Amino acid sequence: MTANKSAFDVNYDGWVEFFTGLGQPSYRAGQVCAWLWKRRVFDPESMTDFGKELRAALAASLDFSFPEITRSERAKDGTRKFLLVMRDGARVETALIKQGDRLTACLSTQSGCPIGCPFCATGASGFDRNLTAGEIASEFAVMEESAGRDIQNIVLMGMGEPFLNTEAVLDAVRTLNHPKMRGLGIRHFTISTAGIVPGIQALAASGLGVRLAVSLHAADDDLRDELVPCNTSYPVRDLVAAMKDYQEKTGDRVTVEYALFKKKNDTLEHARQLVRLLHGVHAYINLIPANGDVNGYERSTPEDILRFQSVLKSAGFEAEIRAERGADISAACGQLKGKEPPDPAKAKEKRHETRRPHKNERRPHG
Ligand code: SF4
User: Which of 24, 49, 106, 260 has its C-alpha lying 20 to 30 A from 80's C-alpha?
Assistant: First the structure.
């Protein structure tokens, strides 16, 4: 290991290898993981069950710096938003959502986001870089440290698209789930994707048992190409096929996120289209009232939201209207930003780099 490698990027097997390489017993791996992930002690000097020499070897071999919380805000409903700065200066925002006694951490998987959904503040701020597995997992550790208590749930849906960084995201889940590391139960994790089909397939194949949520927002390609631009690469038919395949492999239902925008995707016909599209999918539908007016995407009226919901319910779907959390501090879905918007030309260029083939290159549907 090199002194430049982050200690948070070392998995359990890596720790075993590290200690046995020093002639130490392998149980030392469990000890260091307990300090980092359970006791939330990040300075090797404070790891008192190691002797002086071992503490010095740890400090010399790895970088124990963790994301710095440079800003923290608390909403009226108890939701907190954190601005975190990584060791190279990359910035991410995360949210800690309070529901009764339970806390849910909304973790970011990228600094910025290359997808560029037009209604989203994160998308407008452009894309910086992917986060490492250790950076994603350490967001959780510093949030627990700041909260001073355990957090019960994780949703990977902060800044960024998890399935444009799949390997790191799944490794972060493994770290936080591993019984000798944080030990959070696998059913307490949800990955929320904008619809990157290979990522859904990789999650199904991983056998991890993480819950899946898909931000659908539209049931036809023309509208979804506009609202969720990665649809040009992964159109709705392919996406729904991947959701069905995920269900077959895992036996899990899928949460479908549907943000409602006034007169854009909230009419009765849109609701009927959604019912037709999801035929045969065991879906729990989360209807999300849009957060104010971004780029002309306005919030639907309460009446239209209720009408939309009743179409879904009449068709036999479980459909709930999501209670807003943290809107007064811009910590709600699609409001995390992390930094001032960069040069728009640069942001466009970055989006272009990460985009998959154009829609004209879609595979023919059988
Ligand atoms: S809504 Fe999600 S996928 Fe779309 S730009 Fe925002 S963070 Fe990225």
Answer: 260
- Rounded to the nearest integer, the mean pLDDT of the chain is 89
Query: 106 in ligand 1 pocket by Cβ < 6 Å?
Result: no
Structural domains of the chain, count: 2
- 197 and 180 in a common domain: yes
180-226 per-position pLDDT tens digit: 999 999 999 999 999 999 999 999 999 999 999 999 999 999 999 99
What type of residue is 81? K
Averaged pLDDT, 252-256: 96
Same domain assignment for residues 86 and 179? yes
Q: What is the CATH number of the domain that holds 28?
A: 1.10.150.530
Distance in Å, CA 214 to ligand 1 centroid: 12
Ligand 1 binding pocket includes 122 (Cβ within 6 Å): yes
Q: Is 112 in the pocket of ligand 1 (CB under 6 A)?
A: no
Q: Are residues 81 and 55 in the same domain?
A: no
Q: What is the pTM of this model?
A: 0.89
Q: Which atom of ligand 1 is nearest to the CA of 194?
A: 3
What's the pLDDT at 338? Answer: 52
The CA 328 to ligand 1 mean position distance, Å, reads 20
Task: Confirm or reject: Cβ of 333 under 6 Å from ligand 1.
Answer: no
- pLDDT, tens digit, 9 for 90 and up, residues 278-309: 999 999 999 999 877 778 899 999 999 999 99
Q: Which of 249, 266, 40, 31 is nearest to 137 (CA)?
A: 40
Inter-residue long-range contacts of 359-364, CB under 8 Å, 24+ positions, other chains counted: 359/221, 359/225, 359/232, 359/233, 359/235, 362/235, 363/238
CB-CB neighbours of 265 under 10 Å: 26
- Whether residue 366 lies inside any domain: the answer is no
Q: Mean pLDDT over residues 47-71, rounded?
A: 96
